[in-house]
Design a protein that fits this description.
The chain is α+β, with helices and mostly antiparallel strands. Among the domains are: 2-27 and 442-585, Aldehyde oxidase/xanthine dehydrogenase, molybdopterin binding domain (Aldehyde Oxidoreductase, domain 4); 371-437 and 592-735, 2-Layer Sandwich (Aldehyde Oxidoreductase, domain 4), CATH 3.30.365. It is built from 15 helices and 28 strands. The radius of gyration is 27 Å and the shape is globular. Bound molecules: dioxothiomolybdenum(VI) ion.
Length: 737
């Protein structure tokens, strides 16, 4: 049995099915649920980076009208920030201050304003200790971490003999590249509304992972996960900072129990710089060795990034170095330095974004050293198999990405000499870089129900963090069910639904589509079996293979007169619905293939020669990312990733006060992100790619690959325009003068 080809809706540029709700304000986010007797929590954050709370005076705060509780380490219930997986949290269990911005008190009041005012009256006396803030001054303390990097790989990995390979090289590049701390800054701040119903906890939370949040909150509070229900129907951006539950989430639950009322806790913008993760500072030493004709003889990448003193986070800057170019000798290692700041976390293409800045800049330097075109240099080192795993690719269209990108951009018109291209007074630079991101997939489950009225409901406990999960899963479900999209409703965001993974690592489309596809197929198949076995059906005794499902009916392929609607089948059997559940998980293909998305980024910059101001004026990005589920949302994802990368390249930089570890630019006035005027027309093109191995629909993730290679393409374009190689992000005008 097949769904008809004419019914194919997967891939179409469907408008967002939740678009109307969003633009009319009907989409409810975690802080927007009308809950009776709601109280408001505001946290007080530490203003020192290291030390102890010697005294905390809450009397004035408690006397503010409307204040219901002031919770500190002196009166907080027992809890464990270590339990439940994820990050180690601080939930008011002691007087130790581990970083600036740590929540050290929670004030609960009947209005938000009362809580804010009372929080300002909490008096704290610290015993301050000298913190370790600057990673670059503390490299002697760097160590090889015990943990793994994403994909379960070790932090250090050597393939071949890199010293030998470098010794044999005719040309070498040895450079150090640095990237600063960056903050995620989703539009929607972190927010939790906690409602206790007896011993059961209901949490509306802004999260990328409802099930991981359920585990964490239950672990911290010491209750069964089944007693915790997480709801998250809409999330206003995550980019990684909502990937793990942070301290404020269980604190909202603790506060609600303390005051015996529902409590809403929203972090203000400035409160999000510190306790909810950030992209860590990195230092990356890259050595490339090559023959005169541009074959890499060795590739060495040594990355150092910061972690906190109490938890381990590894920014996997060297991960893509292990697979991106063919070389007999490759070594990568990740070191950490403990810094008295909060624990860093995943931020859009963690590792690949900062790692590709270093490697793809170094490749451009090598291209100039060899006088070889940068695309040609990459083609001469094209990896036909994964060079360190030795595995074939499940699919790879990078050659076509280079070709198409160069054509659309007009690369052949480039004069490679720095400062050679001008437009009036402006220096013009063209740069390119390779993009890549791993294609992850995790177990996911879904339920599909075909209802008596001919509509369908499909459920999976996933999240839509703005990427379009509602929309693309509606398309996948409609196609599997043989129904038009307007007859299908896809629901997500409730831990009572079948389990799906966190929406991180660009894995939602691949993981959840596999489950939705399977559940939809099974429900349709079960319904068809009813008809085929039923003497009253026009399809009685037909072969399933001869039946087409389309627009809510089954048709016999060669006898279009023989057909029956889903409604008619269910009605005759007196059934309210037919339901199928599917549990989809990755299999042995994971061991047989190396799975990655690839792309090529092409940037044009205009540099004002007297001021050093850089404007990105043109962009072409070409991508081989498997099957596209929705041409419109996919285009938006890639544009979003490139915009995020333009911010990384030219603007984003979290500035830390070296004495107290406080974030100096802790708001969107001082922390610069691109606005519309900073962004040119971005042309995104997908090459046709069919991956038969990766998952049932051949989907690769697209949420993160767009940022990879972006900063390097800009740095390379800036070099081409100015002759100045900037190896320290962001590329601000002071570095070009
Ligand atoms: Mo992504 S940084 O894995 O949310």
């Amino acid at each position: 049995m097949n769904t008809s080809d004419t019914n194919t809706v997967v891939g179409k540029p469907l408008n967002r099915v939740d678009g109307h709700l969003k633009v009319t304000g009907g989409a409810r986010y975690a802080a927007e649920f009308p809950v009776a007797k709601l109280a408001y929590a505001v946290t007080v954050q530490s203003t020192i980076a290291k030390g102890k709370i010697a005294q905390i005076d809450t009397k004035a705060a408690e006397q503010v009208p409307g204040v219901l509780a002031v919770i500190t380490h002196l009166n907080a219930p027992k809890a464990s920030g270590e339990k439940g997986g994820g990050r180690k949290l601080q939930v008011l269990q002691d007087n130790i201050v581990l970083y600036s911005g740590q929540h050290i008190a929670v004030v609960v009041a009947t209005t938000f304003e009362q809580a804010m005012y009372a929080a300002s009256l909490v008096q704290i006396r610290y015993e301050e200790e000298k913190p370790t803030i600057n990673m670059r001054d503390n490299l002697a303390k760097a160590y090889l971490p015990k943990g793994k990097i994403p994909g379960g790989e070790p932090p250090d990995l050597t393939h071949g003999n890199v010293n030998q390979g470098l010794a044999n090289a005719a040309v070498r590049i040895d450079q150090t590249y640095t990237t600063p701390i960056e903050n995620h800054n989703p539009m929607e701040p972190h927010a939790t509304t906690a409602v206790w119903q007896g011993d059961e906890l209901l949490l509306y939370d802004a999260t990328q992972g409802i099930f991981s949040t359920q585990q964490k909150v239950a672990g911290v509070l010491g209750i069964e996960p089944e007693k915790v229900r997480i709801l998250s129907y809409f999330v206003g951006g995550g980019f990684g900072c909502k990937g793990m539950a942070w301290s404020h989430v269980p604190l909202a639950a603790i506060a609600a129990r303390q005051v015996n009322r529902p409590v809403k806790l929203v972090l203000g913008r400035t409160q999000m710089y510190g306790p909810v993760g950030f992209r860590p500072e990195t230092i990356q030493q890259v050595s490339l060795g090559a023959t005169r004709d541009g074959k890499l003889t060795a590739l060495r990448h040594a990355g150092t990034s910061q972690t906190s003193t109490f938890d381990e986070f590894i920014e996997p800057v060297g991960k893509s170095v292990r697979m991106i170019y063919a070389s007999p000798n490759i070594s990568t290692r990740h070191h950490l330095v403990e810094i008295d700041q909060g624990t860093p976390t995943y931020m859009r293409a963690p590792g690949e974004a900062s790692g590709s800045f270093a490697l793809e800049s170094a490749m451009d330097e090598l291209a100039y050293a060899l006088n070889i075109d940068p695309i040609e240099l990459r083609l001469r080192n094209y990896a036909e198999v994964d060079p360190t795993k030795g595995l074939p690719w499940s699919s790879k269209s990078l050659r076509e990405c280079y070709r198409l990108g160069a054509e659309k951009f007009g690369w052949q018109k480039r004069n490679p000499t720095p400062r050679s291209m001008r437009d009036g007074n402006y220096l013009i630079g063209w740069g390119m870089a390779t993009a890549t991101y791993p294609s992850y997939r995790s177990p996911a489950s879904a339920i599909a129900r075909i209802m008596a009225d001919g509509t369908a409901v499909v459920l999976s406990g996933s999240q839509d963090i703005g990427t379009g999960t509602y929309t693309v899963m509606t398309q996948v479900a409609a196609e599997a069910l043989g129904l038009p999209v307007n007859k299908v409703r896809f629901e997500l965001g409730d831990t009572k639904m079948p389990q799906s993974p966190i929406s991180g690592g660009s894995q939602t489309a691949a993981s959840v589509s596999s489950a939705v596809h399977l559940a939809g197929n099974q429900a349709r198949s079960q319904l068809l079996q009813l008809a085929l076995a039923d003497q009253k059906s026009p399809l009685y005794n037909s072969n399933a293979e001869d039946v087409i499902a389309q627009d809510g009916s089954f048709f016999l392929k060669n006898k279009s007169s023989a057909s029956e609607t889903y409604q008619a089948i269910l009605a005759r059997h007196g059934m309210k619905m037919i339901e199928a559940r599917a549990d989809a998980k990755p299999g042995e293909e994971q061991e047989k293939f190396s799975m990655h998305a690839f792309g090529a980024q092409f940037a044009e910059v205009r540099v004002e020669p007297d001021l050093g101001e850089v404007r990105v004026s043109r962009w072409v990005g070409t991508f081989g990312v498997g099957r596209i589920l929705n041409a419109k949302t996919a285009n938006s994802q890639l544009i979003g990733g490139i915009v995020y990368g333009i911010g990384m390249a030219l603007m984003e930089h979290t500035v830390i006060d070296p004495n107290r570890g406080r974030v100096v630019n802790n708001d969107l006035a001082e922390y610069h992100v691109p606005v519309n005027a900073d962004i040119p027309d971005i042309q995104v093109l997908f090459v046709d790619e069919h991956d038969p191995h990766i998952n049932p629909l051949g989907v690769k993730g697209i949420g993160e690959i767009g940022i990879t290679g972006t900063a390097a393409a800009i740095a390379n374009a800036v070099y081409h325009a100015t002759g100045k190689r900037v190896r320290d992000l962001p590329i601000t005008l002071d570095k070009l003068l």
